[in-house]
Amino acid sequence: MIKTTTSLLGTLDPQSRDRLLTTAKEVSFGAGDRIFSEGQRADRFWIIRTGSIVLDLHVPGRRSATIETLGSGDLVGWSWLFPPYQWHLGAEAQSPVRALEFDATVIRALCEADPVLGRAVARRVAEIIGHRLVSARTRLLDLYGPYGSGPGS
Amino acid sequence: MADYDTTPAVLDRAGLAALVRVLAGRGRTVVGPTVRDGAIVLAELDSADQLPWGWGTELEAGRYRLRRRDDEAGFAHSAGPQSWKTFLHPARERQWSADRDPDGQLTIVPDRPEQPAYAFLGVRPCDLRAIAIQDRVLAGGHFADDGYRTRRSGAFLIALECTEPGGTCFCVSMGSGPGVEAGYDLALTEVLDDDGHRFLIRAGSPEGAEVLAELSTDRADEATVTTARTTVAAAAEHMGRAMPPMDLRALMGDSLDAERWDDVAARCLSCGNCTLVCPTCFCTTTEEITDLTGDHAERWQSWDTCFDLDFSLLHGGPVRSSTRSRYRQWLTHKLGTWHEQFGSSGCVGCGRCLVWCPVGIDITEEVAALAEEATS
Amino acid sequence: MTEVPVPYQVVRRSQETTDTTTLVVEPVARALPPFRPGQFAMIYAFGVGEIPVSVSGILDHRHRLAHTVRAVGAVSAAVCAAAEGQELGLRGPFGTGWELERAAGGDVLVVAGGIGLAPLRPLIRAALAGAGRYRRLNLLAGARTPDDLLYADELRCLADAAPAHVAVTVDRPGHGWLGSVGMVTQLLNRADFAPGETTAFVCGPEAMIRATARDLRHRGVPADRIRVSLERNMRCATGHCGHCQLGPLLLCRDGPVAGYDRVAPLLAVREL
């Protein structure tokens, strides 16, 4: 089940979507499997079909800090779209995961060759990043803290 | 048709004195204007002698002065520092008392002293409108303020048509004066000419007619009726101020982001005087008071002002922390959102907020500036 | 006559989190008129003062009510500290309710942030009781940490019983948290509802309400079908003290629950 309004593929026109999908392959991860680590080459990305993935950040002397979890329909990874193509965060399967895996080099080449498709993909990824940025910023306020009003109160 | 006699009559000054005696004789606490502390205030009257005979007022934004008149008029002054809300919606009032017995059981009872049966002498048209507005706010909704309702339903209103508006008056542009048509028990018009000093009086309720019948009056002569009418009509031409003739409610709704708020906020001291003198401002806060035993508590209600920082306090801080937002709240409520909340404007054009503003902020000038900004 | 608080006795108290307590109260003698989900009471702590608190439970037995209170000030701390057997004063019911019937025939989407789950609890119960009148029931809740989640046991039961899709997310996961991490809006991706036929009921901090409502609008939920519960300073609850104004609204009378179509332009004005 892939939701239409917020997923990467949902808002692409059917033709573009099919072109991306023909390059995808089904993969699965076991709970606890590391999918990628911070600083590694971002050469792939995923769209989760089932299960959930934890995005984390390594902090010396502490357990990895969980930044956010992603679930069904969500795009995993966007660092593949922009140089230097390196992961900013790490990702680990929180539960058994089935996902579609895309090869970043192939998709980038497709996007280069077809500006219409390229624009559609870039725009969609930007929307997703924007959405996550808003969420992260809202969480920065610590709204559910004792006074619900964040820093300075 | 009214089921009581509405024929106008004429009273002389002695007749007015008799009116005060008749009302007192009926067990009423008579309240009217009197000179005190350099102003014409509203206070309990023992006799009509205490009325401000021969006193007038000079009003400007941020300025109030008494002056001696050339004549003996008793009501040729404009709105003073108080309004009738001082009596109907007092500045401080106990709402309930609570007692806790040794078993921890609570007994909570309404605890208001017995309310006086007021007779208000000399309610100006603007203030009569203000009372009607507070009626809707405090007693016209799903819940009623019991104290207000009791005092109000027992009050006897003697309106006084305006014959000499002040420099800060703008009731005509708010549609609330200078004459009165309804909402009173008795209505007076003061007439002072070569034929003497007298009052045209008419009843507006059965009780008003009853009181009038107890007085020795003459049927009003044509000349007095005509003079009264023309004097009130002339007063309409002598308003010191006017609100811009436009849909003020729409203007307020469209002006929330106006730059003018910054301009007025640079002058406004956020003191709240305008809300205290305004005859329709009704906001209150509550406080809890306990005695030394800790087993007796009282709930008191007192006037509050939307200019106070704590007024909009929410958890960590006030919602309206800037003077800009607090002045905007006051004005857009008064002229705009009051309509949605209570079915009318909250302004009656009495001009008190101009007079008693320590820096002379003029509501009509501010609205005109907002109007200009909206059209430019 | 609603002007004087009516004595209610605390019959049960449960500590929900470190600073939040649920009190079940029942009338000592006379009961207040029945409450509807979303409405609130003014709770009086003897000698301290009154605060507005939404009902978090409406029980048939002995006219009992539940209130979930977070200790953030003098009065709320005193109410939270009320022991079983202690008497409090209650006035109410006040304000608009959630009006669950608006969702009849469509999907019910409940989105809660922090203590915002409390006013939604009676709505969820009503939706479960009225199963058949609504299609899918989604309950999405956000909390600061797993320990701050209200009614955790109830939510687990609800999720297991499965007449509802229940999803919970936290801002700061502790050790061993295997659930979602992120803002409550992220859970919308995984909820199952038809936006055009959904009625959403949203309660939480105002910034969370705005973010959620915007997201729902973007997904196609009509603005008037996004019901939000708002908060402002409240002293009297009877529309007379003027404190709870939000533009044209007196939130004790025209709220706390209102349509997003009505409040969106008001929430957009700073310091209104």
TrEMBL record, chain A:
Give the matching SUPFAM superfamilies. Answer: cAMP-binding domain-like (SSF51206)
Q: Name one Pfam family in it.
A: cNMP_binding
Instruction: Report domain Cyclic nucleotide-binding positions.
Output: 8-77
Q: Which domain of life is it from?
A: Bacteria
Protein's UniProt name: Cyclic nucleotide-binding domain-containing protein
Annotated organism of origin: Streptomyces coryli
TrEMBL record, chain B:
Query: Transmembrane residues, as ranges?
Result: none
| Domain 4Fe-4S ferredoxin-type: residue ranges | 257-288, 338-366
Keyword Metal-binding assigned to the entry: answer is: yes
**What's in the keyword line of the UniProt record?**
Iron, Iron-sulfur, Metal-binding
What are the protein's GO molecular function terms? iron-sulfur cluster binding; metal ion binding
Classify the source by domain of life: Bacteria
Q: Name one Pfam family in it.
A: Fer4_22
Name used for this protein in its record = 4Fe-4S ferredoxin
Organism field? Streptomyces coryli
From TrEMBL, chain C:
Q: Report keywords, A-Z.
A: 2Fe-2S, Iron, Iron-sulfur, Metal-binding
Names of the cofactor(s): [2Fe-2S] cluster
- GO MF annotations for this entry? 2 iron, 2 sulfur cluster binding; flavin adenine dinucleotide binding; metal ion binding; oxidoreductase activity
Boundaries of each FAD-binding FR-type domain copy? Answer: 3-100
Give the co-factor note: Binds 1 [2Fe-2S] cluster per subunit.
**CDD domains per the record?**
sulfite_reductase_like (cd06221)
Give one Pfam family, short name only: DHODB_Fe-S_bind
**Biological processes, Gene Ontology terms:** pyrimidine nucleotide biosynthetic process
PANTHER family recorded for this chain?
A: DIHYDROOROTATE DEHYDROGENASE B (NAD(+)), ELECTRON TRANSFER SUBUNIT (PTHR43513), DIHYDROOROTATE DEHYDROGENASE B (NAD(+)), ELECTRON TRANSFER SUBUNIT-RELATED (PTHR43513:SF3)
Report what the protein is called: Oxidoreductase
In its UniProt entry, the species of origin is given as: Streptomyces coryli
